[in-house]
Design brief:
Blueprint (H helix, E strand, L loop, with lengths): L7 H137 L2 H22 L1
């Protein structure tokens, strides 16, 4: 037997065995292999699909996170603006209140100063009046001690009273 040319019987048996093996593989082996390859391909496709969905979900979450962060920043800015406005309003209110209080205190001080000034003027007038009466009393005693001075004083007083009545009428 030669290695290059096999006998006819060997070829028949080899073909028959090959046909049986092929039939067995075609009937039970290939379907199982193709089924497992198909299952594996399906699992891979499913995994790829899930990975894409997860990636899309992550993108959506990232965009939602950005939106939430932006909303939080806007809210923070709004709160800061409101706080600044409140602060400014409180400061302005405090300034107005301080001005009002200062004006009130100044008015009270002016009133008190005017009252004290008036009181001091009354005291001075009273003193001047007392001194004037004392001086007048001394002058009158001196003038009334003389008869001619008394007559002249009475005439002058009568003339003053008469002229003041004429001015009133």
């Amino acid at each position: 037997m030669s290695l290059i040319t096999p006998d006819f019987g060997l070829l028949v048996w080899m073909t028959l065995i090959f046909g049986i093996v092929f039939f067995v593989l075609a009937k039970w082996g290939f379907p199982m292999i193709t089924d497992s390859v198909q299952k594996r391909a399906d699992r891979i496709n499913e995994s790829i699909k899930k990975a894409k969905e997860a990636e899309e979900s992550l993108r959506n979450l990232a965009s939602e996170q950005d939106a939430i962060v932006e909303k939080a920043r806007k809210e923070q800015a709004k709160i800061m603006k409101e706080a600044a406005a409140s602060r400014d309003a409180l400061i302005e209110q405090a300034k107005v209140q301080a001005r009002d209080e200062a004006a009130k205190i100044i008015d009270q001080a002016r009133t008190q100063i005017a009252a004290e000034k008036e009181s001091a003027l009354r005291d001075v007038r009273k003193e001047v009046a007392m001194l004037s009466v004392a001086v007048a009393e001394k002058v009158m005693r001196k003038d009334l001690a003389q008869d001619s001075g008394r007559d002249e004083l009475l005439r002058r007083l009568v003339d003053e009273i008469a002229s003041s009545r004429e001015q009133k009428n």
